[in-house]
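Lab manual, section 2.4: Encoding a predicted structure.

Procedure: take the sequence of the chain (224 residues), apply the prediction step described in section 2.3, and record the output as structure tokens. A sample record is shown.
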Amino acid sequence: MSELIQILLAQPAFEPVIRNGKPYRQLDFTEANGDLLMRDLSETADFTAYVFGELLSNGTCNGIGGYGEDRVIYRHRKHFTADSEKPRSIHLGVDIWAEAGEPIHAPLNGRVHSFAFNDHYGDYGPTIILAHELAGTTFFTLYGHLSLPSLDGLYEGKDILAGEHFAAIGPYPENGDWPPHLHFQVIRDMGTRRGDFPGVCHADDWAYYRNLCPDPGLILRVAD
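Recorded output:
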């Protein structure tokens, strides 16, 4: 068990990232969900109707899940299949599926490490990365698929307090052209990257990224 995992486990609680009071429903985007294999979800409007209309009972629930999930939905996105020899399909974060405009709150004190508008089909869209320190250990949280106004007034080094509303879930197509959701990821070391970090990897690289990006559920602690 890594030092960061031990530190996160030792924390009694974190601030909730989403506060709309809706129950959570676990969503499955792997081959185990046979529904996916019979649908063409390349059109974002159809994908959104499927998620919010069918899976989330017309938006009465939040959706959650995805860490370590081998997802078939990426087959429709060239952003993940451009490398034909190593197509990426293993999800490195947790997704929270909620309506566009839903406020996002910081789970703990941090500061803005970097941010960017990753403006490609299937990418993160507006993205914010926060740096945190707990028990003398620095780590990072990434928030992807945000609204463009979430980037207004930001600057590197800006303090973000635990519980502060600092961003919002974005609509498509500005959010990377996905059904509205938050991609939340924990990262031990950003290296030289700024405003971006892989959120999906090839199966051969899962062991490496699993060590680098521990389960965000250690912070979210959401019961489904």
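Check your result against the sample. The chain has one domain: 3-220.
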